[in-house]
Amino acid sequence: MISYNIILIISLLLIFPIISIFRLKRRHNVELIPSIPNYMDFKMVLCVRQDLGMGKGKVAVQCSHATLGAYKQAKKHYPSYLESWESHGQAKIVLKISDKSEMFKLANKAESLRIPYYIVYDAGRTQIKSGECTVIAIGPAPVISVNQVTDHLKLL
């Protein structure tokens, strides 16, 4: 029969390396299993409808809503994208889109490529009628993927 001391020693020999790895990760923020290559750049693109005639302040607020919404989507569904985007400067670019139909084309393309996106629907308290979509955020995601959706658009 195996003695209690032998079982204890074997258990400690197996558990000690695991504990050491988790301490190392916590102390030095070491990623044990990288899910995304370090060389890959990430960005978020904010696409603003031009047919609504929003003022600069309204555009800024709508872009803020879009950024926060996309952040929450990425945190829930694409945490590795979010982590990479946060650790590489959180790049954001603002582009122009003509209208609602163009916005939904971008959303469909992003969805088909499995890129996180978020559409802002205005509350209707100021310049825009309630329920109108104003901005779409695409990303955070690898630059190469986001460019497949938005490369044809112009800067705002």
Question: How is this structure best summarized?
Answer:
This protein is an alpha+beta fold and 156 residues long.
Quick tags:
156 residues; transmembrane helix; transmembrane; EC 3.1.1.29; alpha+beta
Which CATH top level class of the largest domain fits?
Answer: Alpha Beta
Report the average pLDDT across residues.
84
Percent range for helical residues? 40-55%
* Biggest sheet, spatial arrangement of strands: 2-1-4-3
Weakly predicted, low-confidence segments: 29-34
Q: How is the biggest beta sheet arranged?
A: 4 strands, mixed
Q: What's the end-to-end separation, in Å?
A: 77 Å
Q: Encode the helix/strand succession as letters.
A: HEHHEHEEH
In the CATH scheme, what's the topology name of the largest domain? Answer: Bit1
Protein name: peptidyl-tRNA hydrolase
Family: Belongs to the PTH2 family.
GO molecular function, one term: peptidyl-tRNA hydrolase activity
Transmembrane segments: 6-24
